[in-house]
Amino acid sequence: MDRLISLEPSNLVPIKIEPGLKCVGELTLRNVMYTMPVAFSLQPMNKTRYTVKPQSGIISPLATLTVEITYVLPPGVCLPETYPHSEDSFLLNSVVVPGATINNLSSTFDAVPNDWFTTKKKQVFIDSGIKIIFVGSPILGRLVKDGSMDEIREVLEKSDPAWNPADSIDSHGRSLLHIAIAQCRPDIVQLLLEFEPDIEVQSPTGSTPLEAAAGSGEALIVELLLTRRARTERSEASNWGPIHLAAGNGNIGILRLLLLKGANVDSLTKDGNTSLHLAVQERGRDCTRLLLASGARTDIPNTVDGDTPLHIAASLGDEQMAKLLITKGANKDIRNKAGKTAYDLAAENGHSRLFDALKLGDSFCVAARKGEVRTIHKLLESGVAINGRDQHGWTALHRAAFKGRVDAVRALLEKGIDVDAKDEDGYTALHCAVESGHADVIRLLVKKGADVEARTNKRATALQIAESLHYVGIARVLLHGGATKEGGVTAGSIVHSFEKYSTKELEKVVVQRQRSRGRALRGSFDHSSLPLAVL
Fold first, then answer.
1. Which regions in the chain score pLDDT beneath 70?
2. Which residues have a Cβ under 8 Å from the Cβ of 477 and sit 6 or more positions away?
3. 382, 360 in Cβ contact below 8 A?
4. Contact between 34 and 62 (Cβ < 8 Å)
């Protein structure tokens, strides 16, 4: 036998260090003898740093005794000289004491004669393997800051399970997760998450770990936290939520992760901005496109000044951003709390290149739709973009052709507008004129070189549209203009029974087709064109 006493659970004694509290650890001694009491003496090698209670005593056969070891921190000192392992050691002496009885055990604590452990007649066992490991919030906070992975794990595992060491807070009020995030250490975050810390704990500034990771641009840490079901909403104490931090910092990878996990794309910052406001403010086109593709609303006003994202783009003079927002349906007529539209802000800041997108283009399209040729010329002289498009991809020529404004169509063509420009559905102005039955416009477009074989996204030609609507006269115009039918059918072979359709019914067909393509029709249908279409 080489030992009378076993140490439980091991010879490594954890001593918890916490500010303002007594630094105490416990060691359990077990008498491994079946029939004989054992006396022990436990002495620290450095008696100025440690106190042991009891220092000595007698343990009955197979019984245990818990010893309290107290570490004394010098005044004003927060951490031991070495951590987490102490360089100090302890000397455990033990000896069999056949003469001791159960009845006098309690009276012998700290009263065991020292010569019991020195008398040569007795066999004294000496154990110097007892070591100290310091645990507690200051220790873990410093280890996380230092990045000591193995030591962090050891301290976490040796800590008292009655308190969750992963929830430790350092002297600055930061959680271990916040410290690891500040150190850009996803490996430490992953280690801490194994011990199930509170992932919604807030820093002194009110941010959650997810908000801190999003703000730091740590995509891997964000993913780790989201895997643990971290909340994507803005915490009440924070100014910005995770999605705002990602959008405001232009971090599209983190933004995509948050959106995939269900983050509210239209949630507000404390000062009333959406993530779209912030992306536009920072000129983040990729983030803006992702937000818009994820359903972000373009017309939410800021709760303080009433600015929409389009107001912000106009103030900055960001033409591409403004056009992107308009293409996605941003309302150019919304006024902020100062009563100003996006155009007003662009004008105030001298951003003339935005005038066409924000105002002149609208006037141009209106003039084309109404057939106001003088206004068209005037606006072109003012610098309006002749091939400008609306959110559906329509140019002024599409609008004029659809409404049958032949003079406006002629004026636009003379000024060099793209006769074969296509909208988002692949429709040219010729398709629009055919669909709405304006034969005179069709003749003009064909004469000016419009591609009569152009196909929509669904592979429809102008001739096929005319035939599907029973526009016999228009079909004849297209065939005479060079359109061909599949299978070599000519104009002379077109036979349709038009009589069963009334003007109102034809109008209904066209309107339904336009609505099916998502068009918002402007003004009333031009009935006068129908006779020309079918003669």
1. 1-2, 99-111, 119-122, 391, 486-535
2. 439, 442, 443, 446
3. yes
4. yes
> For residues 485, 491, 493 and 498, what is the CA-based torsion angle, rounded to 10 degrees?
100
Backbone phi, then psi, for 102, in 5-degree steps?
-60, -35
Smallest CA-to-CA distance from 485 within 495, 494, 472, 497 is with 494
Residue 501's pLDDT is 35
> Which amino acid type is present at position 477?
V
Q: What is the pLDDT of residues 302-352, one digit of tens each?
A: 999 999 999 999 999 999 999 999 989 899 989 999 999 999 999 999 998
Separation of alpha carbons 443 and 459, rounded Å: 22
What stretch of H or E contains 445?
A: helix 439-447
| Cα→Cα distances 373→9, 404, 447, Å | 95, 13, 20
| Token pair for 13 | 């004694």
CA dist 3 and 12 (Å) reads 17
CA 278, CA 271: separation in Å to the nearest integer?
11
Residue 221 CB partners (closer than 8 Å, separation 6+): 180, 181, 186, 189, 209, 213
Q: What is the pTM of this model?
A: 0.72
Q: What are the DSSP calls for 207-257, one per residue?
A: --HHHHHHHHT-HHHHHHHHHTT---SPPTT-SS-HHHHHHHTT-HHHHHH
Rounded to whole angstroms, the Cα distance separating 29 from 4 reads 10
Residue 129 tokens, joined:
């393997």
